Amino acid sequence: MNRIKRKPTHPGKIIMEDYLKPLSITVTEMALSLGVSRKTLSKIINERGAITPDMALRLGRALDTTPDLWMNLQKNYDLWQAEHMSKDWQKVKPLSPEQLHANIQETANNPMNQSGL
Amino acid sequence: MNRIKRKPTHPGKIIMEDYLKPLSITVTEMALSLGVSRKTLSKIINERGAITPDMALRLGRALDTTPDLWMNLQKNYDLWQAEHMSKDWQKVKPLSPEQLHANIQETANNPMNQSGL
DNA sequence: TTACTTGTAACCTAATGGGTTACGCATGTC
DNA sequence: GACATGCGTAACCCATTAGGTTACAAGTAA
């Protein structure tokens, strides 16, 4: 369940450390190559912007990776942020285990169940 | 590389089909339980709203799942949408394989590399 | 009929992605 | 020293979107 992991690396850091630096590509060049403004890429690299699906696709093509890689990095980052920022979600009460587990079995085998799952 | 998969199921459909229906929980009840407005949940269920990180955390608690489950469903959905909507990202030219592969090795072993990776 | 459930429109606020232009700073080059 | 590059970022604009409240019409069940 390891919900207590360290802060995930921001996708922008990966771009910088694993690609731009090793390949000696400037932010300006990369932005041009991706077809986005320098500002957009700069924001991401400085961890002030997020990887959008569109950007994930662009990065995937440019860097020969799956778009999912970038989506996942962003997803993990966002989730960690939300988890540690607002605590409001912790007030949510789990549905009772009886409902969640017992009933699922019941309904699944119950001929009265019309839902057609 | 299977980039040609079918349209992913929207998270809202999962909520409805796998939870609300089997458990006989109404949208109104669930919204209350999650601590969000009925509108917010309704939009998601009718595939007109997205799972935000905050919502993923709420669903995780309420339904005894990982938040990642919901984040992943949304991520796959978003990526598929972006992939099939705008085609602009396809114009992005991959960095040359020489840069992407050869150079990575070079720089990694090159004493001149100052980046300290 | 009456009550409950639901989708959704209308309206408002706050946040966010993306673009352009421009400025100041650091670094490298001639 | 003078000039060019690269970069972060501010200022400003636009479009979209999450989320909330209120309200209405329609469907369903008691």
Q: How would you briefly describe this protein structure?
A:
Chains A, B: InterPro entries: Cro/C1-type_HTH, Lambda_DNA-bd_dom_sf, Toxin_antidote_HigA. The structure is a homodimer of 117-residue chains. Chain A has 117 residues and is mainly alpha-helical.
Task: Walk me through the topology.
Two copies of one chain form a homodimer.
Chain A: H1 11-23, H2 27-34, H3 38-45, H4 53-63, H5 67-84, H6 97-109
Chain A binds a DNA duplex (30 and 30 nucleotides) through residues 26-28, 36-40, 42-43, 46, 48-50, 52, 54-55.
Structure commentary:
Two copies of one chain form a homodimer. With 117 residues, chain A is mostly helical. The first copy, chain A, has one domain: 434 Repressor (Amino-terminal Domain) (Orthogonal Bundle), CATH 1.10.260. The first copy, chain A, has six helices and no strands. In chain A, helix 2 crosses helix 3 (38-45). Chain A starts with 10 loop residues before the first helix and ends in an 8-residue tail after the last helix. Residues 103-117 of chain A have low confidence and may be disordered. Chains A and B meet through helix 1, helix 4, helix 5 and helix 6 of A and helix 1, helix 4, helix 5 and helix 6 of B. The structure holds a DNA duplex (30 and 30 nucleotides).
The helical percent of chain A reads 55-70%
Give the assembly state of these chains. homodimer
CATH superfamily of chain A: lambda repressor-like DNA-binding domains
Unreliable residue runs of chain A: 103-117
Could you tell me the radius of gyration of chain A in angstroms?
Answer: 21 Å
CATH topology of chain A: 434 Repressor (Amino-terminal Domain)
- Highest CATH level, the class of chain A: Mainly Alpha
Largest sheet of chain A: none
Keywords (chains A, B): DNA-binding
Protein name (chains A, B): Plasmid maintenance system antidote protein, XRE family
Organism (chains A, B): uncultured Desulfobacterium sp
Domain HTH cro/C1-type (chains A, B): 16-70
